[in-house]
Amino acid sequence: MARHKARKHKWNPYTSEVQRFSVYPRIQTPREESVRVGETFTVPINDVDEKGRGITSYRGKRIIVYNASLGSKVRVKAVKVVGDTIYAQIIKTLSEADTEY
After folding, report:
1. What pTM value is reported for the model?
2. Is 3.40.50.2000 the CATH number for 44-100?
């Protein structure tokens, strides 16, 4: 009697890369545009953290803006990009929300 196990072949038509054998071109999925250091953009400040930094989002990324006030619309420059978080510096304040305290 044979003591070895029957080996299965490694190529499986359902798990192998079918695109490699296709005659049709591969459809490219659009990549999310990344933000680079030095890029400028305009954002409204939606929230402020305990350190007084403005928090907002842009292109699916979280932006932390130094010395921003809540409700203001500012033009910022990306200073540092870490994962999904962008640290930015204010270039110009475009408008402030009229709030009374």
Report:
1. 0.61
2. no
For residue 81, what are the β-bridge partners? 86
- CA dist 2 and 96 (Å) reads 83
Q: Are 76 and 91 in contact (CB under 8 A)?
A: yes
Tell me the two tokens of residue 41.
Answer: 């953009």
pLDDT digits (tens, 9 = 90+) for 7-17: 555 666 565 56
Q: DSSP letters of the chain?
A: ---SPPPPPS--TTTS-GGGG-SSPPPPPPPPPPP-TT-EEEEE--EE-TTS-EEEEETTEEEEETT--TT-EEEEEEEEEETTEEEEEEEEEEE------
